[in-house]
């Protein structure tokens, strides 16, 4: 029996784009193949937020899901940390 685990990532909400939609930025580091230094990379994903819980600056956990629209194939699992208001 094969277990179907969903791919999950953690990122920071960069913008709230309409109802039930947010943009999440995932930052990671890769090693340069020639110089062996670490390079910072980022990926911006469109995410479905059904309950509209996440705000700009929040850290959220997202999971892969069926395509919700042309660009949205991820959904919010939980808000890991709320943004600190200044």
Describe the structure.
- With 86 residues, the chain is an all-beta fold.
- The chain has a single domain, classed as Beta Barrel (OB fold (Dihydrolipoamide Acetyltransferase, E2P)).
- The chain has strands at 8-16, 21-31, 38-48, 59-64, 72-81.
- Strands 1-2-3-5-4 form a five-stranded mixed β-barrel.
- Strand 1 (8-16) and strand 2 form a beta hairpin.
- The protein is globular, with a radius of gyration of 15 Å.
- The N and C termini lie far apart (50 Å).
- The model has no long low-confidence stretch (mean pLDDT 93).
List descriptors:
single chain, 86 residues, mainly beta, OB fold (Dihydrolipoamide Acetyltransferase, E2P), five-stranded mixed barrel, globular
> What is the H-and-E element order?
EEEEE
CATH class (first level) name: Mainly Beta
Shape: globular
Strand content: over 45%
Give a short account of the largest sheet: 5 strands, mixed, barrel
Mean pLDDT over the full residue set: 93
Specify the structural class: mainly beta
C-alpha Rg (nearest Å):
15 Å
Number of DSSP-assigned strands? 5
Total individual domains? 1
CATH architecture, by name, is Beta Barrel
Helix content: under 10%
* Widest β-sheet, arrangement of strands: 1-2-3-5-4
CATH T-level topology: OB fold (Dihydrolipoamide Acetyltransferase, E2P)
Low-confidence stretches: none
Q: N- to C-terminal separation?
A: 50 Å
Count of helical stretches: 0
CATH homologous superfamily heading: Nucleic acid-binding proteins
